[in-house]
Amino acid sequence: MFVVFHLETNPVHRQQICIVDGQGGGIGANLIKYLREFHGERYELLALGTNVIATSQMMKAGANRGASGENAVIHTVARADVIIGTIAITWANAMLGEVTPAMAAAITSSPAPKILLPLFHENITFVCVGTDPLPHMVKTIVEEVITEVLPHV
Q1: Which of 2, 49, 62, 133 could bridge across to 36 with cysteines, CB 3.0–4.6 Å?
Q2: Which residues contact 24 (CB under 8 A, 6 or more apart)?
Q3: CA distance linking residue 108 with residue 94, whole number of Å
Q4: Domain boundaries, given as residue ranges, for the chain
Q5: Are 23 and 51 in contact, with CB atoms under 8 Å apart?
Q6: d(CA 117, CA 121)
Q7: pLDDT tens digit string along 25-68?
Q8: Percent helix, strand and coil across the chain, each rounded to 5?
Q9: Among candidates 17, 20, 95, which has minimal Cα distance to 57?
Q10: Does domain 16-146 have CATH number 3.40.50?
């Protein structure tokens, strides 16, 4: 006779939102702070930092779990329900080289919807992009876009 035990780490499945950030993690931390304030524990927030400092800041802001580095990003975004970050997370070598080509490919190839802020420091110009301040863009994502992207919750 065999007895099988199944350990459930997340007994109530909540949709997973991956917040990807690099450098100091400030934008990701702001997103997590406002997501947590507006949506409470409705979603599982995963902090994915290109470095440990970014991940640490996002964890302090209220992420449920976090991980740092290329492999963590590649592994986790493949299973995400939504990915949020600046548009630079989709560009190889962005953020002073912190976004590796493999990270950018994994993020853009993920089947998850991506919500991208039009913020970057690279030498690229976009035409017809809004110029709202960062707090207004974060508020729009948190209060409107998330529920449009994940309407079945």
Answers
A1: 62
A2: 53, 54, 57
A3: 14
A4: 16-146
A5: yes
A6: 12
A7: 999 999 999 999 999 999 999 999 999 999 999 999 999 999 99
A8: 40, 15, 45
A9: 20
A10: yes
What's the pLDDT tens digit per position in 104-147? 999 999 999 999 998 777 777 666 667 788 888 888 888 888 88
Query: Residue written as tokens 């400030």?
Result: 26
Q: Which residue, chain included where needed, has tokens 């909540």?
A: 14
Query: What type of residue is 105?
Result: A
How open is the CA angle 58-122-46, to the nearest 5 degrees?
Answer: 20
Number of helices and strands in the chain (H, E): 6, 5
Cα separation, 66 vs 99, whole angstroms: 17
Cβ–Cβ < 8 Å for 116, 90:
yes
Q: How many residues does the chain have?
A: 153
Tokens, residue 79: 């299973």
